[in-house]
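For reproducibility, we list the full input for the zinc ion complex.
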Amino acid sequence: MTQLILKKCKCCGEEFETNRIDQFFKNRLHQVSHNNNKQSILRKRLAKINTPILKTLRIYKDLIGIKSEIRVSKDFLRGKGANIAVFTHVAKLDDQLVNFLYDIAIFDQEDFIVLKKNKQC
Ligand SMILES: [Zn+2]
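The corresponding predicted structure, in tokenized form, follows.
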């Protein structure tokens, strides 16, 4: 015989009965709503950093297109709305430490930037 346990829903605090000790939500809708809210809060928290990164990535990818490498002026990139200060990580490329924006290697050349697609990433 299964015993019913009285629990409080993790999303709204409403009480519900269940026979499962691993059930934390009244039903699937409450679980989905709770997870969506958590994701939304996280997305908003990260947006300050992620938005300029993703915008700059889109601009770099559009400019590179089918080429493997391009040289662009920093002023032009700023004019397009890119944030030329952002990068996601530093990695070694041809024995040199290079800033990357995902799979794009960024080489600083005073007033210009060379963007190079990297298939190793
Ligand atoms: Zn709930």
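The chain has one domain: 5-117. Residues 52 and 68 are 23 Å apart (CA to CA). Both points were considered when choosing residues for closer inspection.
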